[in-house]
Every structure is written in C-alpha cells, then in structure tokens.
C-alpha cells in the first residue's frame, strides 16, 4: 500500500505521545498549581480587587495564557492520536468488528474533547476584550494634547524672512472615583477577572482530565487499536484498497 509509510509514521507519533504523556501531565499540573494557587474563588477575588483599575491584571493574564497553552498542547496531541486511529481502521467486512468498536469509542472520546477545547479556547480568548470594555466605562482621568504648527514667509526690501509658530493645547478630563457608578463599574471589573479566573481553572483541569482519560484508554487497548481484527486481519482500510 502507498499509505503504509503514513500508517507507520502516525502510529509512531501517537505512541510517542503516550510515552511522554505522564511527564507532560505532570508539567500541566505544575502549571495549574502555579497559576491557580488561591484556595477559593473569593480569595482570588480579594486579590483582584487590590489591582484596582489598572490597565491589566498580570496574574490573570498569566492564568489565561497558561491555560490556552495547555489546551493547545492537548489538542495537538489528540490530533495525532486521532490521525493514527483513522489510518488504522480496517477494511469494512462482516464479522470480527469488536476492535473497530474500540477504535470508534476512542475517536468519539477525542472528538468530544476537541469540541470542548475549541469552545473553551474561544471563550478565554475574549478575556482581554471583556476587561477592556469595563475599563472603558470607568471614566478614568485622561489627558490629551493637540499641537498646531504654522509657517509663513515675507519679503521686505528684497529680503525673504521665514516665520514659524507652534502652539500646544492640552486637555484633561477628571474622573470621579467617588461616584456610585464608578464604584459599581470597578466592582464589575473585578467580577470580569474572577469570572475568567474560574473559567480558566475549570478549562485547564478539564483539559488535563480528558487528556489523561484518552491516554489511559490508548494504553489499555493499544493492541486492539493497532490491530482491530487481530494479527491475521490487521490490514487497514487503506491497505485493503490496493
């Protein structure tokens, strides 16, 4: 089969993921321990309140970034395993299809995980925009300046004289941090940070748990997944085509 080299390559890639899986899971868990160290969500909220109306919340930015990296890594590894499974589905024929059932079960598990990863990545990617929207409504003090330049030339007694002038106008807008609306919107800003902290934590833990489940399934059923019809009928759908 002209696809044999691809079958071999994707199998090696998939089982390299399995081989390195435990170490990668430990690194993911270490990331979570570092970025999600608060014992409760209320403790995280207290910390975020101290940030105030700063342009960014560095701890939250790190949480979201780390979680996106974890989900991206999990998604890429699951793609390799999914490709391996698809390339090892045997030629369709009657009987002895239990191994195919095992393959399809893992493919369904991977598909569900990939769908969840995609939704969580899309959701967390909205953090910066959500925070910026609330900041924009806080009516914080601001300043702006406008510079106007002009030039002219005159000729007197045959002599040319150039003149230039420059003026700068500065405008300052004073916020009202004591107003009720400002206080409420500052609370909304803290709520955005807390909400996305919770989203990021749950997304990271879910991604790690799903990754562990897929690798556990792969390890326990690797012979059926490699040769769903046994050694005597191990040709894939691709090899059966030629």
Topology:
Layout: H1 4-35, H2 41-49, H3 58-87, H4 98-124, H5 127-136, E1 142-156, E2 159-173, H6 180-220, H7 222-226
Antiparallel strand pairs: 1-2
Offer a quick outline of the entry.
The protein is an alpha+beta fold and 242 residues long. The protein contains seven helices and two strands; from the N terminus they run αααααββαα.
Description:
By secondary structure, this protein is of the alpha+beta class. Helix content is 64%, strand content 12%. The chain has seven helices and two strands; from the N terminus they run H-H-H-H-H-E-E-H-H. The chain has a two-stranded antiparallel ribbon. The termini are close together. Mean pLDDT is 85; it is low at 233-242.
- The secondary-structure element order is HHHHHEEHH
Number of continuous helical runs: 7
Major sheet, described briefly? 2 strands, antiparallel
Strand order of the largest sheet: 1-2
């Amino acid at each position: 089969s002209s696809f044999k080299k691809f079958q071999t390559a994707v199998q090696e890639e998939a089982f390299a993921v399995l081989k390195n899986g435990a170490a990668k899971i430990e690194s993911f868990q270490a990331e979570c321990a570092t970025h999600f160290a608060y014992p409760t969500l209320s403790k995280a909220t207290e910390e975020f309140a101290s940030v105030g109306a700063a342009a960014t919340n560095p701890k939250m930015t790190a949480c979201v970034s780390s979680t996106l990296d974890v989900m991206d890594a999990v998604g890429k590894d699951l793609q390799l395993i999914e490709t391996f499974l698809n390339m090892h589905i045997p030629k369709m024929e009657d009987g002895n299809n239990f191994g195919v059932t095992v393959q399809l079960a893992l493919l369904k598990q991977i598909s569900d995980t990939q769908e969840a990863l995609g939704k969580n990545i899309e959701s967390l990617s909205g953090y910066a925009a959500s925070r910026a929207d609330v900041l924009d409504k806080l009516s914080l003090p601001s300043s702006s300046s406008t510079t106007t330049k002009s030039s002219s030339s005159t000729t007197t007694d045959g002599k040319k004289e150039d003149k230039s002038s420059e003026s700068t106008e500065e405008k300052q807008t004073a916020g009202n941090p004591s107003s009720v609306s400002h206080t409420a919107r500052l609370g909304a800003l803290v709520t955005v940070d807390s909400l996305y902290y919770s989203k990021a934590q749950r997304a990271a833990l879910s991604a790690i748990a799903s990754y562990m489940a897929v690798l556990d399934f792969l390890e326990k059923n690797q012979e059926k997944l490699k040769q769903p019809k046994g050694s005597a009928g191990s040709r894939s759908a691709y090899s059966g085509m030629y």
